[in-house]
tRNA pseudouridine synthase B
Amino acid sequence: MNTKEDFLNGQILLIDKPLEWTSFQAVNALKWAIRKKFSLKKIKIGHAGTLDPLATGLLIICTGKFTKKIPELQGQAKEYTGTFTLGATTPSYDLETEVNETFPIDHITDASIKDATTQFLGEIDQVPPIFSALKKDGKRLYELAREGKEVEIKSRKIEISEFEITRIDLPEVDFRVVCSKGTYIRSLAHDFGKALGSGAYLSELRRTKIGDFNVNNATSPNVFKENLEVNAST
């Protein structure tokens, strides 16, 4: 089990972020657990890529000297699984906000759903959601969105190397996506709805891989804390 020196010298910790936790809360939970266990005044700790509160799955948390590895880890390809709900949109492109528009889905077939994925493969231009933590003029976009301000958001180049439909049970469509850093799956949901001549929002999201790291090897923050209390040697 890890010692105080291990955490200070640097560890890569794989955490399965629970639903409704922020990534910051997950980092904080580990930070407090490590500090308390080893009576540390401070320890460097950070995560390699935010997950929205409504998403679950792999969060890579680096401690000590390994916090220097964060940019390199953030740059790796990511795999997500989840669910799009067709026939409606929300301002945040997910369940954080209420449905604001509904659309017909009678014309959508299994074949058209599978065909639509091909439009998003390779390098594409994607516009991030207005409800995101990106900054414009020093303010986060979601702050401007909540104030009801109109904001022009520039598109950016992202890459989707795999986009697979794993279940169709309209209005729900399950998917698996492998994509580059900076991809918003919420924007993909929104654009996917448009591509089908309808609307869509992201109703479930789980990050399953970052590079070679897999969520199957991750533990929840609470299990991490329990293991630390039981097993760690000071």
In short: Residues 23-38 form the longest helix (16 residues). The helical segments are 4-9, 23-38, 70-74, 110-116, 141-146, 185-195, 221-231. The longest strand covers residues 156-169.
